[in-house]
Amino acid sequence: MAAQQSQGIQTLLESEKEAAKIVQQARQYRVQRLKDARAEATKEIEQFKQAKEQEFKAFEASHAGTTSTAQTAIDKETEVKLQKITDSYVKAKDAVVAKLLDRVVLVHPELHRNLRKVEA
């Protein structure tokens, strides 16, 4: 009977060691899975970050081109308007100067309409 108890205790100890080994392997497996998950998440985050960075650069480039194109169009339009104003100035300059000189130099003295004649 003692041999049987000893054998039963020995079996229990071996089972306990085997269970501890299984628990240890499960813990190692869990730790490894967590490390793998973190590495995979980091990798996905990096890929997402790169994709968004490229998307932003493309957006920036497309809008920067639009801005420079708009600036060029505005510059051309401004140049055309300045040319029209300059042409108008050159055409009307002599006539305006002549009218001003006529008004200043040619004086027609006459009495004001509200002025009454003083009878003596």
From TrEMBL:
<comment type="subunit">
    <text>V-ATPase is a heteromultimeric enzyme made up of two complexes: the ATP-hydrolytic V1 complex and the proton translocation V0 complex.</text>
</comment>
<dbReference type="GO" id="GO:0046961">
    <property type="term" value="F:proton-transporting ATPase activity, rotational mechanism"/>
</dbReference>
<dbReference type="GO" id="GO:0016887">
    <property type="term" value="F:ATP hydrolysis activity"/>
</dbReference>
<protein>
    <recommendedName>
        <fullName>V-type proton ATPase subunit G</fullName>
    </recommendedName>
</protein>
<keyword id="KW-0813">Transport</keyword>
<feature type="coiled-coil region">
    <location>
        <begin position="31"/>
        <end position="58"/>
    </location>
</feature>
<keyword id="KW-0375">Hydrogen ion transport</keyword>
<dbReference type="Pfam" id="PF03179">
    <property type="entry name" value="V-ATPase_G"/>
</dbReference>
<dbReference type="GO" id="GO:0000221">
    <property type="term" value="C:vacuolar proton-transporting V-type ATPase, V1 domain"/>
</dbReference>
<dbReference type="InterPro" id="IPR005124">
    <property type="entry name" value="V-ATPase_G"/>
</dbReference>
<keyword id="KW-0406">Ion transport</keyword>
<comment type="similarity">
    <text>Belongs to the V-ATPase G subunit family.</text>
</comment>
<comment type="function">
    <text>Subunit of the V1 complex of vacuolar(H+)-ATPase (V-ATPase), a multisubunit enzyme composed of a peripheral complex (V1) that hydrolyzes ATP and a membrane integral complex (V0) that translocates protons. V-ATPase is responsible for acidifying and maintaining the pH of intracellular compartments and in some cell types, is targeted to the plasma membrane, where it is responsible for acidifying the extracellular environment.</text>
</comment>
<keyword id="KW-0175">Coiled coil</keyword>
